[in-house]
Design brief:
The chain is mainly alpha-helical and 119 residues long. Helix content is 61%, strand content 11%.
Length: 119
């Protein structure tokens, strides 16, 4: 099964049903639920998601959202080494470069952004 790293914005789009972006996020989550892909998020996505959902929809909803992510996605660690790699790897998007530890990221296939890769 293809492992796909899913960005914070895609996860937030899904859980907050954000406008024009929700449809693509829903397709990605459907692919994860039906095991067409293995969804991966970094640990920083989980904490950011709790903060964002908590501010928009309250603590209970934030906790339910984190529980859903925990049950459904592989969670990749972010370490000091991850940040060092992100600073030095030449990627234009620092957030994408710092999404998980080097071993976890290197094991993911190089693909187009997930919102384009899942139809």
């Amino acid at each position: 099964m293809k492992r796909v790293l899913i960005d914070t914005n895609v996860v937030v789009d899904f859980f907050l049903k954000r406008g024009e972006f929700f449809a693509n996020a829903d397709k990605i989550f459907a692919a994860v639920r039906t095991r067409k892909i293995q969804g991966c998020v970094s640990s920083s996505v989980v904490t950011d998601l709790h903060f964002i959902i908590g501010r928009k929809a309250g603590e209970r909803r934030a906790r339910e959202t984190v529980e859903s992510i925990y049950a459904t996605f592989a969670i990749l660690p972010v370490s000091r080494g991850t940040i060092g790699q992100a600073l030095n790897n030449g990627m234009a998007d620092f957030e994408d470069a710092g999404q998980g530890d080097g071993e976890s990221i290197l094991s993911l296939p190089a693909t187009k952004p997930v919102s384009l890769a899942v139809a």
